[in-house]
Amino acid sequence: MKIVDDALVSLEVTLYDAQGTLLEKSEAPLQYLHGHEDIFARIEQALGGREVGAHLQLQLEPEDAFGDYDPELVIMAPVAELGEGAAVGLRVEATGPQGEDACIFTITGIADGMAVLDGNHPLAGMALRFDIRVVGVRMATAAELEEAELASVPDFIRLAEPPTRLH
Predict the structure, then answer these.
(1) Which residue range forms the structural domain that includes residue 14?
(2) pTM across the whole model
(3) Angle at alpha carbon of residue 5, lines to 49 and 157, rounded to 5°
(4) Among 25, 32, 26, which residue's Cα sits nearest to residue 138?
(5) What is the pLDDT of residues 73-128, one digit of tens each?
(6) Domain match, 60 and 128 both
(7) Per residue in 29-54, pLDDT tens?
(8) Which residue, among 159, 133, 161, has the nearest Cα to 62 in the 3D structure?
(9) How many CA atoms are closer than 13 Å to the CA of 77, on its beta-carbon side?
(10) Bridge partners (DSSP) listed for residue 109
(11) Beta strands in 7-79 (DSSP E)
């Protein structure tokens, strides 16, 4: 069966940076609902019409993946306001300096009682190479179409929401 809109597609995906360094690899097949913007548009377009066994390699530039790195999404916050377990690498929800909507930030540094919070996706600004193999294709059931939320699609192949600008 060919990949068409409303098909439930299973993929094995390996993600590399532009230099070939392994960033992520699916441990089990990932599923997405074709035609429902569950994954990056360029990947979905490239998969259209393919069948089980198809193998493709794509490079996505930042604008087709997680966007350019935005320095305006980096803020400073007192460590005391982040709670007891504040540490580099921890993800926290915070608002911008002018009270903008909450955004998920990663603590990227701590010094002198202040934490650097970065609201960019960790892969923002990077060209990414995807190695994708189609391992399953079937039409989604009526219940799956109604649900249209397949939790097995990880962040590294889709952008859940655009980042929030802080200024």
Answers:
(1) 7-66+123-157
(2) 0.77
(3) 80
(4) 32
(5) 999 999 998 888 899 999 988 776 566 677 889 999 999 999 999 999 999 999 99
(6) yes
(7) 999 999 998 899 999 999 999 999 99
(8) 159
(9) 24
(10) 116
(11) 7-17, 22-25, 30-33, 55-60, 74-78
